[in-house]
Amino acid sequence: MELPTKNGLDPDTISYLKEISDDSNPDFFRDLVGIFLQQTPELIETLKAQIAELDFKGIEQVAHRLKGSSLNLGAKDLAELFSQLEEMGKNETAEGIKQKGEQLDSLFLIACESLKQEI
Asked: Which residue of 18, 42, 63, 103 shows the fewest CB atoms closer than 10 Å?
């Protein structure tokens, strides 16, 4: 059964990450979110350029990387989009890929705002 998301986030993952942000490393969750917010925009721009060029190998590789970092932070909706793009790159599927690429900024913004609220 699919877990419900809150603003695109998996509540169980968020709870777990907050739990492991204990006294020995109280900023763990904040640091993870900070790294994600700092590194992801450049990768999304790279991915959008690869989509525009139909660079399927590049799409597959960058989408895979972004999927992993999104899942690690519980950004399930964003990770799902990256998963779809990864598959489209792997299968060299051009149909619909540009429309998926157009969703990147809005889903990333939702994930960012949601993660910031969790800090």
From this structure: 42
